[in-house]
Write a structure and sequence with these properties.
Layout lengths: L9 E6 L4 H13 L4 E5 L6 H8 L4 H5 L2 E3 L2 H5 L4 E5 L10 E2 L1 H11 L5 E5 L8 H4 L4 E3 L12 H14 L15 H17 L9 H14 L3 H19 L4
Parallel strand pairs: 1-2, 1-6, 2-3, 4-6, 4-7, 5-7
Helix pairs in contact: 1-2, 1-7, 5-7, 8-10
């Protein structure tokens, strides 16, 4: 069965990769699985010759189209659904999906939404600060004796699962969700409002915000829903400032 994922809507986002060879291998793996979009954040000085050597000449077109960004928020702003990858488990970072489960979800989501597959540096992976942008988290099962995966191998596994996942032709695709830039603006507005009414602990304001992020991420937000929430927040702010003593 031909995969129904709309791969032109799927991008691999590499946050601060350290080795040009890994990027070259990722370009080759991405092209093998029909994905041509790669974004690199915070690492613009990688050696092109080494990337080409590891990608082979057949994937140089993928290297040519790589987009470079300095800021992760800027890199993710236009995506409606972001999947973070991590090997570090914990209640504060979950819940987690397997590559197969998330791939099945992404087949439908990618038909109307731009999807980012976010990978962290080879040595440290993604920190909580990067994972906060994500609507879903995925971890690749491996033996307890050796959990560490090469970055390009991790990318290949996830891309392979997406490529092989398929939905029945009659399945209805999920709606088009709000872009990350819209959602982050909403979260910033909510955080300001909750701080103003004393709901957030000023010493750790992100604790409850992380719970709110998970709450909204479970169902996804449409652009019009983000606008409604921001409109409510603005009205509450106005009401508080103009409330008669």
């Amino acid at each position: 069965m031909t995969p129904a994922a709309k791969t032109k809507n799927i991008s691999i986002v590499l946050y601060k990769p350290k080795y040009a060879g890994n990027v070259g291998s990722i370009a080759r793996a991405a092209k093998n699985m029909g994905i041509g979009n790669i974004i690199i954040v915070g690492a613009a000085d990688l050696n092109r010759e080494e990337m080409e050597r590891r990608s082979t000449h057949l994937a140089t077109d993928v290297l040519d189209q790589i987009k470079y960004c300095d800021d992760i928020g800027e890199a993710l702003a236009d995506f409606q659904y972001i999947v973070g990858t991590t090997a570090r488990l914990g209640k504060a970072r979950g819940p987690f999906n397997s590559p197969r489960k998330i791939a099945q979800d992404l087949v439908g989501i990618s038909r109307k939404n731009k999807v980012a597959l976010l990978f962290g540096p080879e040595d440290t992976g993604l920190a909580n600060n990067e994972l906060r942008y994500c609507q879903a988290m995925v971890t690749i099962p491996s033996t307890r004796d050796f959990r560490s995966l090469n970055l390009s191998h991790a990318v290949m596994i996830l891309c392979y699962e997406i490529f092989t996942a398929a939905l029945p032709a009659t399945s209805e695709a999920p709606p088009k969700w709000a872009r990350s830039g819209e959602v982050e603006g909403m979260y910033g507005q909510i955080k300001t409002l909750l701080a103003e009414i004393g709901f957030l602990n000023p010493e750790n304001p992100d604790y409850w915000m992380m719970h709110l992020r998970r709450f909204f991420a479970r169902s996804g937000l449409l652009s019009r829903e983000v606008k409604i929430i921001r409109g409510i927040s603005r009205q509450l702010e106005w009401s508080m400032r103009h409330k008669k003593p």
